[in-house]
Polysaccharide deacetylase
Amino acid sequence: MYLGSVKFFKHFIVGIVLLLIIGLSFAAVYLAVMNKNYQKQISELHSETVLAQSTEKPDRSQESEALEYQELYPEMYADLSEKTTVSPHTIYLTFDDGPSDRTAEILDILKEKNVKATFFVIGKEGPKEKELMRRIVDEGHTIAIHTYSHKYEDIYESVESYLADFNKIYHLIYETTGVKPDMFRFPGGSLNIYNARLQMELSSELTRRGFTYYDWNSSSGDADIKTTKDSVYANTTKSAANKDRVIILMHDSVKKKDTVAALPDIIEYFKAKGYDFDKLTNDVKPVAFNYKEE
């Protein structure tokens, strides 16, 4: 009897296997066709998007709104120098994030060594800090802007937010010292991950207002949490090597004791190399990250 026999079950199993093979083949062909159609749709959608972007007319109303910040703070302008100078074999010591107790110690060292420097200050409005701002000016150093809050996320949120912060420190310096600052340093430097999308607008707007910004081409490395007196000295002298004109980044916030400790030896090292020391003024050719110094 065929039904229920061994031969029957063999034929039955073979039939099932054949059906599975045929079914999988059809499924593979179907998925291939669907995938091809899907890729075609994606390609067409991409082409339509590119075409729309290339032919879209600019929204002039948005462009006008983007320039409204030019009307803000009409008194916040400086006199941009008509020409720049380059002093060979010169060291410019610059200190960010003060004033603090370290600022007083640094000023004492600078006075003893007969060296002038530049201080990019932030918004500290205590009587002690204001007195240090006045001392910076009275002792012949340059005082400049490093923003009021120094909070990267806030100041780099928009051009408007940066200008608002800038305006606060501008007036604090002016009202405290009688000096209208005309120079500044971007927190993190002119190019960093926080201001990348705003850098061109910020630089253009502040330059339009007459302000000059300065980056650096040598660093003490004193922002590192593992800083020591020896590392500050080594980083400064090494990063300045083979440079004729050097703008050195240092900090005078309250924790920078190692910077203070290393400073006298750093000054003596560069004096022995025949360098002159000077403060930044807005006619000094800037060092900036977005162009190569000649």
Notes: The longest strand covers residues 90-96. Residues 31-64 have pLDDT under 50 and may be disordered. The chain is about 50% helix and 10% strand.
